[in-house]
Amino acid sequence: MRILSIVLLILCSTFAAANEVDMSNPNQVIHSVSINTFARINAEKEHLQEEPDYIQVVIEEELLPYFDYKYAAYKVMGSHLKETSKVQRNDFVNAFRTYLVNAYGNILFKYDQQQIEILDNTHFTDKKIVSIPVRIRDKNEQLTQLAFKLRKNKKTGEWKVFDVIAEGISMLNTKQSEINDLIKKKGINHVIQLLEKKNSEFSS
Prior knowledge:
alpha+beta, 5 strands, 204 residues
């Protein structure tokens, strides 16, 4: 949950105007999504206050298009992926995607402005996966180091986020360890049901 909080700090950092997202440049993905998300939240602040669940719409439209949640979901399943049916894989991806939307929405209301510095990675031309380092400093001058990991789609050439490393801890690896143990003990259907239950709890 702490890592998810840091993700939102970056994606909702204090920029003033919305821009088009250049998906061919991983640095611009991080910068532009930050701008667009913050601008949207600012423009629809009254709507969000009157209808808190509307934050899910904002996240669906402003954040999720730039997250490779299918790739992340498959990575989380790890070696168990090959043991699942197409239906199970689709169900897991959908449940995982909804879980991310709900988790981000829940955390977004706890956001408090911090000083954020995004450090561009200029060596991405011939890469398939890159990291964009980020530094966050809070009001108590506490510094947090993290990095967004992005993957280039070989068909479209677009870069999307699939993992976040916070103080050396990978969100993807953490979820993979947690979910892999559950799949091993209870099976993929049980894990899908657990995610769906968490999703319904977010909505209630």
